[in-house]
Write a structure and sequence with these properties.
Layout (H helix, E strand, L loop, with lengths): L10 H16 L7 H15 L8 E4 H13 L5 E2 L9 E2 L10 H10 L5 H7 L1 H17 L1 H4 L21 E4 L3 H7 L1 H18 L13 H6 L10 H7 L15 E5 L14 E5 H7 L3 E2 L1 H13 L1 H10 L6 H18 L2 E4 L3 E4 L8
Parallel strand pairs: 7-8
Antiparallel strand pairs: 1-4, 2-3, 5-6, 8-9
Helix pairs in contact: 2-3, 2-8, 2-9, 3-4, 3-6, 4-6, 5-6, 13-15
The protein binds zinc ion (ZN).
The site of zinc ion has 9 residues, from strand 6 and helix 12.
Amino acid sequence: MNLSNLPAPTFDFQIKFLKYIQWLLESGSYTSTYKFALLMSLVNVAIESEAYGNSTLFISYEALAEQFIKLYWDQALPYIHDQDANSDSLGILYQNLGSQAIVITSISALQSKQANINKAKMNHANDWTKMRKTIAQTIHKNPAKFLQSPENVERTFLYHYDEKNKNGITLNCGIAYCLAHFSNIIFKLCQQYWTEFVRNNKRNQHLFNQNTDLQGFLFKQSRQNLASLVPMLIDIQDCKCFYCAKPLKKDMEVDHFIPWSKYPNDTAHNFVLADRGCNNAKRDYLADIPFYERWQFRNQTYHQDITSFAIEKGFTAHLATSEKIGKWAYNLAKENQDLVWQPPKNFKVIETTLDVF
Ligand SMILES: [Zn+2]
């Protein structure tokens, strides 16, 4: 269904939404990081659902569980602080106040068979399904229930929680739109609160020293080796920089076309190869419209090559999802009249005659 033509929620509603998110994050004592994971997962699903208009959106617990797995996968690996790791400074971070969170123990169990998330999903499909089911049940019983009702006072602004419905939740009219439009603010706040929670958890503190970059460990770009994609990207880009088209030399770098800061997205179609100059100059900006068109064209042309190569290297590849994320990012930039970048170092306000990307 194309929701692009539906009207947006009113500005009053959008402000009410922001106030509510602020209240959610500040309110109640919480005993795990699930609340933040749930909010971030709702944002991701809203973006990938093209929820542009003022409509409701059903989200299954299984879909939320997939997002939880992505968020927690690297966090479930042993935490090693800085360079001076020794046996005392190795451990899996506690994500709640009691015994370890179920999400972490479920993920750890599968990680012991396969450390790469995408290979685990592909090669251990039964274990994956089982893990996802356990996590979906946990979301149903825990954060979905308590997110809006920390003191057992029922609130229903985001969705009406129904304990008997084990399939999922339906976001109220306009909520998915707001989640997708205020994603940056929600991501950044959740990451900060999440980091504080893990840092303040007494059971983790022996792992930290003054220089610990905990937020970096929890949320930095995934630890997958981007360099393994270089041969494929050289091939399909004819060994030229994606942006300035100059021949690539040694200083080539893999760039997230839709920046990681806008959407933490490691799907293969998002990667392009650029020289260091272009990569550094672009930073966290979107590239100008002609590059967006070039990126779409490249992905459609080389869809098969990108997918098969990347999957073999342990990446995820899903063209339709990448396209939705691209569309969302450029639509948002257009609404906000963001700056976009073009080589070598020019920024300008985004300009396009297209209504919908
Ligand atoms: Zn370049």
